[in-house]
Amino acid sequence: MTGPEHPRADAAGEPAGAEAPDGPAAGGPRRSGLRNPERAVRGLGAGTLSLEALVLLLAIQPIRVVGGDLSGTAIGAVVALAVAAVVLAGMMRRPWAWHAGTALQGLLMLAGLLHWSLFALGVIFALVWAYALHVRRVILG
């Protein structure tokens, strides 16, 4: 034979060694197409929390300049929330970290009692976190 070798087909016409497709139509488990879905979801959670920490720290000065009076207590709360977000981003392998991330979003909205802009940031990041949880639920099932 001068051309490339082709595997023999079985009685159903499938090439030898071919696997049945997974998916809802085949009756198998739904696949996300990701090589390691757990790792991808952990990366999404860690990236979300890291971005939140960065935005919180970078928002301190503009809030002070534009938003008016930002007390030392509010600045301390922002820094503490940013540190907590970084720590949680590093602990996303643990299942409880997702619940702690949800609590962190609530604490950020609660910090809105110290300054209204912290509540606004809390709402924005709660929506982003809710989307990350939705993606986690879709991918992992």
TrEMBL record:
Superkingdom of the organism of origin: Bacteria
Protein name: DUF4233 domain-containing protein
Keywords: Membrane, Transmembrane, Transmembrane helix
Record bears the keyword Transmembrane: yes
Chain segments annotated as transmembrane: 72-92, 104-132
Biased composition (Low complexity): 12-29
Regions of compositional bias (Basic and acidic residues) in chain numbering: 1-11
Keyword NADP among record annotations: no
Positions of region (Disordered): 1-37
